[in-house]
Amino acid sequence: MLATLIIVFREVIEAGLIIGIVMAATRGVAKRGMYVSYGVLSGFIGACVVAIFAGAISEAMEGVGQELFNFGILATAVAMLTWHNVWMARHGREIAMQMKHVGEDVAHGRRSLMALAAVVAIAVLREGSEVVLFLYGIALSGKESEGMMLLGGVVGLGFGAALGVAMYLGLLKIHSRHLFAVTGWMIALLAAGMAAQAVNYLQQAGYLAVLQEKVWDTSHILSDSSLLGATLHTLIGYSAQPTAMQLAVYLSTLIIIFTLMRLFGHAPSPAKPAAATS
Amino acid sequence: MKHALLTLALVIAATPAFAETKEFPITIKDHKFSPDVVEIPADTKVKLVVKNEDTTPEEFESHDMNREKVIPGGSTANIFIGPLKAGEYKFFGEFNEATAQGKVVVK
User: Fold this and answer.
1) Closest chain A residue to B85 measured between Cα atoms?
2) CB neighbour list of residue A54: distance below 8 Å, 6 or more residues apart
3) Of A28, A181, A205, B42, which one's alpha carbon is 20 to 30 angstroms from that of A133?
4) Are A86 and A111 in contact (CB under 8 A)?
5) Contact B82/A209, CB-based, under 8 Å?
6) Would an 8 Å CB–CB cutoff place A133 in contact with chain B?
7) Listing from the earlier edge strand, what are the strands of the sheet with B58-62?
8) What was the pLDDT predicted at A198?
9) How confident is residue B8, by pLDDT bands cut at 50, 70 and 90?
10) Nearest residue of B to residue A202 by CA position?
11) Is B39 helix (H, G, I), strand (E, B) or coil?
């Protein structure tokens, strides 16, 4: 029961933290609970589908179908998170001061929510499919009684959810003035970590087998398998033994996100005279 | 047209040559890896071919090599590793960590 609990908890942490961050990042936006819930639901359904077709996916594309699938959905999540940050850079000020949405902002707001709901769905799908497969394996092997297994799984799920709630509540303590900047950073780091992981999958599939040198090894300081290590892995993309490629992709993603935010952020205020583009 | 051909040539050149990569088989049976020590040459990209002979799925994972893959019961998985520097790189089965342990020794 304990083994099941720990494994399910570790898998759920990633999804739980992402949901907590997304909920905090969208504070003040109407109906965001609904969008996030739909994200979780579709992610869960997707997880079951992926688990059912795990064998077929795995053997597709000369045996690297799973890696390419993971790369695809992670890249999509990175794109969505980037889009959200750019959108917030443009419209965030109004939301931070809780001004009313008018006109096109409402439509944009909904699109931003959908982007984040997609990110939630992807996270739930990825971790969920592993949980479903794992629990299915336990049920098959008959190692634990179904009841104990279910209990371990539910408790592990609960702990993972609790971590997400803790993240959310912790972020809410931040004053609205700063919340936008803080969640903007957290989302950028989330995206950078995912991008590095996505390229890892490509390398696992045999592509881009370059820059594989380990840049550092901090597993004796903070191991990837520890709870804090796993949490930081999701939050900031921490890796105890990152390759040069992972670092390169991580930094590039951050640079790209902040450059895009700079370029497209802060729509000109109506008071200023129409200026030529600089 | 010239640009398109050049791009195509670059893409083909960058595509991994699967046929040339050396394969190293590993079997999962009764939640144990066999062999549990795999020797591979340094600075070489190789392919681990992991066959899961159990009926239950296993997640092949390695923090040392930054690899993770779920292998359904009865399935075989290809996992590319390297080029790696000399040393030992541990891997494990996340769903059965107590018994599923192994390492890649790079010489």
Assistant:
1) A213
2) A66, A129, A133, B57, B70, B72, B75
3) A205
4) no
5) yes
6) yes
7) B37-40, B101-106, B87-93, B58-62, B67-71
8) 95
9) low
10) B80
11) strand
**Interface touch B69/A67, C-beta < 8 Å:** yes
Interface check A213 vs B, CB under 8 A: yes
The gap from C-alpha B1 to its chain's centroid, in whole angstroms, comes to 39
Nearest to A77 by CA among A27, A133, A117: A117
Tokens 């010489």 — which residue? B107
pTM: 0.85
Task: Tell me the chain A residues in contact with residue B21 when contact means C-beta distances shorter than 8 Å.
Answer: 206
Q: Rounded CA gap, B92 and A103, in Å? A: 54
Q: Which residue has the tokens 């908890």?
A: A9
The answer to whether B84 contacts chain A (CB < 8 Å) is yes
Chain B residues with CB-CB distance to A200 below 8 A: 66-67
Helix (H, G, I), strand (E, B) or coil at B76: strand
B98 contacts in chain A (CB < 8 Å) = 3
B38 contacts B76 by C-beta, under 8 angstroms: no
Give pairs for A217-220: CB < 8 Å, separation 24+: A217/A241, A219/B63, A219/B64
Q: Which helix (H) or strand (E) holds B27?
A: strand B22-29
CA geometry: angle B81, B84, B88, nearest 5 deg: 95
Beta pairing class for B46-52 and B22-29 = parallel
The per-residue pLDDT for range A67-106, each reduced to its tens digit, is: 999 999 999 999 999 999 998 888 766 654 554 444 445 5
